[in-house]
Amino acid sequence: MEPIISARGVSKTYQGGFTALRDVDLEIRRGEIFALLGPNGAGKTTLISIICGIVNPSSGTVLADGHDIIRDYRAARSRIGLVPQELATDSFESVWATVTFSRGLFGRAPDPAYIEKLLRQLSLWDKKDSRIMALSGGMKRRVMIAKALSHEPKILFLDEPTAGVDVELRRDMWQMVHSLRESGVTIILTTHYIEEAEEMADRVGVINHGRVVLVDDKRTLMQKMGEKELSLQLARPMDKLPKSLAGLPVKLSEDGQRLIYHFDIKSGDTGITDFLRRLNDANIDFRDLHTRESSLEDIFVGLVRAERDERLKEESQS
C-alpha cells in the first residue's frame, strides 16, 4: 500500500546557518498511529512544519496523500490537520464560531451536523457558545483539536498534544486518538511522554540532531532491543561481587542488598541457569526475586545516547 506521507532527502538549514534536519527519509503508513520521539531541539517540530507546508525544506521532497507539499500545496494541505504545541486561538470568538470558520478556510461547505458531532466527541458541546478566553487550558486544547479536524482531514498531526494537561484529560485524548484511527485517520504525534508512545503507537520513529535514528514497529523494536533484568534480594548484604560471578552480566546494587542480572530476551540461552548454579556453589542465598522487561523509554534513552556517542566520535576524528 502506498504510504500516506513520504519524505525523501529532506533537509532544513535556517538563514543563520543552523541545520535542523539532515537528509531525512520517512514513510508513514495509511491508517497507522506513528509516534515521533526525540529530545528538545531534535528536529521534530521542524519536520512536522515542513510536512504541513508551514516551513519550506532546503532540499528534498514530501508527498501528502500523493500530493507534493510545494507544487500542489492546497491539495496537500487540505489532507492535513495540525494541532500545534502552542494554544493559539481566537480568544474572543465562541467555540462554535472558530471551529466553523476553520472549516471554511479549507474551502469545505458548511456542515453544522458535522461540527456538532465533532464538538460532542470532544466533550465541547456544552461549551459551544463560550468564548475561548474563558475556557481552561485543557478545554482550549480540545478546541485546537476540533479546529484541526474541522475540514475532515485524512492526516492528523499532534505536536505534544498532552503537554501541561492533567492525567484524566490525557486519558480522554488517548481514547479519542484510537477512535480517530478507527475512522480511518492517520495520526502522527510527537511526545515527551514515552508512555504515550508505548500506549498508543503502532510504529515509533526516533529523531536526534536532525537525523532519523530508527523507525520500527513498536513491538518489533522492543523485541529487537529490549532486555530483561533478574533482580535477587539477598539474604545478607555484600560489599562487593564475589569472584565466582566474574564474567557474568551482573552487578551489585549500591546498598549491597540486590544482585541484578541482565539477559537478552531474544536469546535461546539466557545464562540464568549458570548464574543460579554459581550462586549456589558460592553459598549465596537470596530471599526474593523478580524480573523486569525494558520499557520503550529505556530503549529510547539508549538509542539517543548511542547516536550522541557516535556523533562525538566522528567529530573527534574529523
Task: Walk me through this protein's architecture.
This protein folds into three domains: about 1-80 and about 155-165 and about 180-225, P-loop containing nucleotide triphosphate hydrolases (Rossmann fold, 3-Layer(aba) Sandwich); about 90-150, no CATH class; about 225-295, 2-Layer Sandwich (Alpha-Beta Plaits), CATH 3.30.70.1560. β4 (about 60-65) and β5 form a beta hairpin. The model has no long low-confidence stretch (mean pLDDT about 85). The chain is an alpha/beta fold and about 325 residues long. The protein has helices spanning about 45-50, 75-80, 95-105, 110-120, 135-150, 165-180, 195-200, 220-225, 270-280, 295-315; strands at about 5-15, 20-30, 35, 60-65, 65-70, 80-85, 155-160, 185-190, 205-210, 210-215, 225-235, 250, 260-265, 285-295. The strands form three sheets. The chain has a six-stranded mixed sheet, with helices on both faces. The protein has ten helices and 14 strands. This is ABC-2 type transport system ATP-binding protein. InterPro entries: AAA+_ATPase, ABC_transporter-like_ATP-bd, ABC_transporter-like_CS, ABC_transporter_ATP-binding, P-loop_NTPase. Keywords: ATP-binding, Nucleotide-binding, Transport.
